[in-house]
Specification:
The chain is an all-alpha fold and 189 residues long. The protein has nine helices and no strands. Helix 2 packs across helix 3, helix 4 packs across helix 5 and helix 8 crosses helix 9. The longest helix has 23 residues. It is elongated.
């Protein structure tokens, strides 16, 4: 039996309702757009919130994401995973919102080494989801973006460097600093 590529299997697994909604959106049908919005709004809002850090900007980024989806729906290729396609739009839209806030990225030389702190092993520390969410919201925008892209969105360091237009060693350094800062915020509470 011939095995389908992953993207083909994902598309086959997409339910018929979503396929019909995509088709309706391509034809400019408002009811299809509304149904698609209702189906994916919560997931895209959460992705935006992780990156921008506050509900108002996350709502704004999510709304802009849907505007981009509806105006670019003809660019969607049917053999790709639709949810991954719209999620990528949401992530990039949220990053654009953070860029407007102009977070400071620390640029480091290629040979910069990150010193390991004498702190408790983070795997030995247990926190509630609420504590972690509150602490992430308190992080500076640059730290929050890198942590979110790496931990929640699954990008690797090189991809994050490319998205943010900074060097990979700087991403690694920012990630290490963000983790330390996150632990400091959590332990202070």
């Amino acid at each position: 039996m011939q095995r389908l590529p992953v993207h083909s299997r994902l598309y086959i697994q997409m339910d018929e309702t979503t396929v019909q909604l995509i088709d309706g959106c391509r034809r400019g049908k408002r009811d299809a757009q509304l149904a698609l919005y209702k189906q994916f709004a919560q997931r895209l809002y959460i992705a935006c919130l992780r990156i921008v850090g506050n509900p108002a900007d996350a709502e704004e980024a999510m709304q802009d994401t849907f505007l981009k989806i509806f105006t670019r729906i003809d660019q969607y290729t049917d053999h790709l995973c639709f949810e991954a396609w719209i999620h990528r739009i949401a992530v990039h839209t949220a990053i654009d919102y953070v860029r407007r806030q102009t977070p400071e990225w620390d640029e480091l030389s290629e040979n910069y080494a990150v010193a390991e702190p004498d702190e408790p092993d983070e795997e030995d520390i247990r926190y509630s989801v609420k504590q972690i969410k509150e602490a992430i919201a308190k992080l500076p925008a640059g730290y929050r973006v890198i942590l979110s892209l790496y931990l929640f969105e699954g990008y690797d360091m090189e991809e994050i460097a490319s998205i943010l237009d900074i060097k990979p060693p700087s991403v690694r350094s920012q990630y290490m600093r963000a983790k330390r800062k996150l632990l400091d915020i959590i332990s202070a509470n």
